[in-house]
Amino acid sequence: MTGKKQLMKAIAIKDEALVPVEIPRPEPREGELLIRVRAAGVNRPDILQRQGLYPPPPGVTDIPGLEVAGIVEGTGARVCALLTGGGYAEYACAPSSQCLPIPEGMSFEEAAALPECVFTVWNNIFELGKFQPGETVLIHGGSSGIGTTAIQMVKAFGGRAIATAGSEDKCAACLSLGAVLAVNYKTQDFVQEILDFTDGRGVDIVLDMVGGDYVRRNLEILAEGGRHVSIAFLKEAKTEIVIPVIMKKRLTLTGSQLRSRPESEKAALATAILQHVWPRIERGEIRPLIHQIYPLAEAAQAHALLETGQHIGKIVLKV
Ligand SMILES: NC(=O)c1ccc[n+]([C@@H]2O[C@H](COP(=O)([O-])OP(=O)(O)OC[C@H]3O[C@@H](n4cnc5c(N)ncnc54)[C@H](OP(=O)(O)O)[C@@H]3O)[C@@H](O)[C@H]2O)c1
To answer: Could you tell me if 50 and 18 are in contact, meaning their C-beta atoms sit under 8 angstroms apart?
Structure first.
């Protein structure tokens, strides 16, 4: 033993670009597991981090990557894990409370595509949005990683998913995942289409990642007692809201950000997901849709593809 730290390959952010580096392997803190990463999910928040718009919380590695799948050093367990950062690397540390077993027969690449989306959708549609079986949920960005997961989860739990997406191919993908209606927002007015489809009643929950004028339009198509859940503002952070609409229909406006939540809250989410969602994943009712897999060294190409917005589902790095 030389006492020197073992090195690993990772992808770092330098001047808003992704560059391969060799850095010391991370060391697990108390309550954490060291995972030999086999695959890492790529998410839109990673792009924002690269652009300097979504810095890691204090004390967190600046290596990007919010989810991985791999093998736990020492035990050999196959897990996927939600991370606060550090996924684009050969090794990553995760609180054991945020590690979930990889369902039998599922590849590392598929498993790496699960945590960020499943945690986000569970927290926002099922917990904050108080989803009930039989309800109708509008999912904007239906072909995104989040959207493709949300459509399947709403369906698996006995709801009706309506999606919006920006092309006919993306709409077809949403329908094939189980959406009851997919609206191409570039050629159709989603408000009118959804009111027509629901005989004027509207939807119970909107999962919104667009913001801006979408919020006012979303409120128009929420049914009485409806819930509006914001997870991003791809178009615009500011919006104007017509207050009487909220009062008349007794609407709830809520939202959340996953990464900065305390470990205890993520652990509670993991427990609920293991109990309620994992059996449905194991039965194949919910399956990650992988658009493309890149080698870790080509993380920059993976980001370039995500930024074109042409993908349907998830992009994953193979380590
Ligand atoms: N709050 C949280 O905890 C949390 C956690 C994870 C992710 N998120 C957010 O959830 C969103 C989805 O994440 P993801 O990783 O699944 O990303 P993604 O696959 O890149 O999805 C973004 C989607 O938004 C659609 N979109 C609609 N309007 C858009 C616009 N004005 N600009 C760009 N895209 C637009 C895009 O497709 P079309 O326009 O073609 O339909 C695309 O499907 C991201 O905004 C991400 O930041 C939030």
So the answer is: yes
